[in-house]
Design goal:
461 residues; alpha/beta; TIM Barrel; Immunoglobulin-like; 7-stranded parallel beta sheet; 14 strands; 28% helix; disordered N terminus; EC 3.2.1.51; Glyco_hydro_29_N
Amino acid sequence: MAVVNKAGLLLTLSFCLLLTVSCKRYLPTWDSIDSRPIPDWYDEGKIGIFIHWGVFSVPSFSTEWFWYQWEGRKLQPYIDFMTKNYKPDFTYADFASMFTAEFYDPIQWAQIFKASGAKYIALTTKHHEGFCNWDTKYSFNWNSMDVGPKRDLVGELAGALRLTTDIRFGIYHSLFEWFHPLYLQDASNNYTTQDFVKFKTMPELYELVNKYMPEFIFSDGDWMVDDFYWNATEFIAWLYNDSPVKDTIVVNDRWGQNIRCKHGGVLDCDDRYNPGVLQNRKWENCMTIDRDSWGYRRNAQLDGYITIEEILSTLAETVSCGGNLLINIGPTHDGRILPIFEERLRQMGQWLQVNGEAIYATKPWVYQNDTLTKGVWYTSRNETDTLSVYAIILDWPTGDTLTLGAPVTSLATTVTLLGYPDMFSWEPGSMGGITINIPSIPFNKIPCQWAWVFKFQGLKN
């Protein structure tokens, strides 16, 4: 480590003050790492797209955990599937050459993500199967350049996003691999050795950051062992101090079975984490459009996909409680985003074109859901000393009034509907709150098809 004399240190501090940048160095401890503020872009963006894509997209049966369920747990449905459809000596590795990606068009993907209204993505670079979707030095013949697509899937999408959109590029990376010999050896040694971490996991992470400069890292595969094995604090301290994305990088909390939901960056806690109440720390709800799988399933039925109404309900609840929504899709082995995934994403984008003011760059209000009416979630925005409060109404009122219990009105209170030109009249509710008079609105004047947003200004609270 270089020695810095007092004059040099004073010069550095003066430089930091002059440019109003932070010169704080983060230590490889959770206390120090937890003290770093989450970059504003992440909190303001609110919505990301998760992409689970890998060799598991070839069998595309039941779940992205196919290999483990078949040969790890030896579950009968998976054994039967393989017996009926593949030759007796077929191995999971044989699927890799069938992961072809011939229809993979990263520019098209970027356009779909842009239309969705998402502000960042997290592409699977490596799932628990260990297959790497990039040109890596640390995975011989088990990566997308050596077998299958013969393409750098990660690099192509990063380039397409940066060329055609303002969406932040991010990655998903699994710390462990089900059947890697070095990992299995470390596990058999009760994790007293760290050869897998030293020669595989950490070299991959450093390579991904230096090569593709992601601004979001969703770590996973941490639950087998405490954080002492993964050496994650050293890596995160480097990310925050010296990496090429040190000022903008965001990480999650999955760095050891004792760490998730406690330490790190944003809290993912569990899959589909949605506490329904305001949290003390920034958190994220990673969830799927396919109800049962993160990867593509050929055997999914229509009712196996959530509706746009469910997506918007989850979005409203998540943002109201201070979280971000990371919504997952699973492309096919040949690189297509299924029409049903594309439709859901474009529907979300259409809704956000009208109602994004109530989502992006908002803050939680004093109430998250309404005190009288169910299916109402609140957000707020403070601009130029004017507080705007947004009530996201999941069901359109059946009568000619809507009564909400949370807003406290004043003589200056105004009520509008996002996307509709006229103000709404109102009166104080009989039990407090506000009663909004709902006029007859022609069908072609309704601003959106699902989940409507009333905007309040001039409230006392």
